[in-house]
């Protein structure tokens, strides 16, 4: 308890004095260098532009080669940057072998195979490095010349230092020639692109990432005091719609105010949940055997549905990214209730009855920090079953310039970087579900009372409620068709059919009648954001 008190005093010091994470003592995090075995990795942000496919179309990309490398460092591949939203190059990793052994960690390729040449003027040529036995290339090359690159222009990595991993997202550029589709991908692993020429584009793209373990993660990622400094400096301000009736609360407030645990074995005998959630079943899978619900008393139900902003806190999950270059800090908010969906049908805004209502709602944003300089690079805004990444330079900040805004939608609580209306549906026809955010409503400082509930690489003790893998609300039973007909009874016939078509095409999670599972059951908990 004494050490915990000292830690809290240090957190208060960080808050009051505004220290950056790189000013707090730690291991490799924020020091500009990461060591994987005998490989020394650095980020490079200086590039030579090699080629771009004409003007800057939204779907294009510009290709670069790292330049001005320190002595002894080599590229691991060329870099590419999609034109949307920003065509400027970002970062790529360069490497140096410090082993001086007979089995070096890095090796020059034995040669190159030409993957594809463009028909443009000037032309570009994409090359696959051919590694020596026991090594793997983690990036490909682009040149402006048809001549094979020099062997010294890239390094391959020894196989025992790599693990297979998944490449998220689709290609950043593609073209078709002689029945073969040529695609270029930019995984968030090393900042190097991978190219492929295959009939129909081929299957899954093979990708190798640097192997990590508990020791390397603890060394390259922020420690607990650095995490606190990052939260105090960069945690978002959450902004809720002025008309939002369903605000977040803390989990303990939800439990203290009558939340009930139900089980299939005794569905008519629910039990009150203690503030810490100790009675909740731990681990396992969402087998439908348990669920949570509001208090039975109607007046208590309405009280709990409204939430309690003064008790609300951000629950923090710190996790590694597939790329060793980054750390993700995830800010989770809990809402006791998710309100009904609203739709826009041309010039008419319409509530959809009870469609979209459910008990228990977990929403999040994710901030991605560089392990090299400790700076905020991007922020992810979760939006129902998907979301979007926004570069740090494009975020909306408070007056101090380091705290980004996150706007929660009315009733549905999806997050967006700017206030306004986003339609989910047939946008070109002006028909869709309304994700509506606005300024002027209640706001929440995510740094105030932020609770780090999980950082596995640091051994943070997780609260019992986080191990509850079942649903945080019951399955609501109502007639979806009747709710829809009742909601649109005053619409003209043409607009009624348009709304029916919209609802029929929407994924079930947008009109969910079931309480969601908790944070640990989300696909992004142990992986990168989609």
Automatic annotation (TrEMBL):
Pfam families: Vps62. It comes from Platanthera zijinensis. Keywords: Signal. Residues 1-21 form the signal peptide. The keyword Signal applies. InterPro entries: Vps62. Residues 507-530 are annotated as: Disordered. Transmembrane segments: none annotated. The lineage of its organism: Eukaryota, Viridiplantae, Streptophyta, Embryophyta, Tracheophyta. This is Vacuolar protein sorting-associated protein 62.
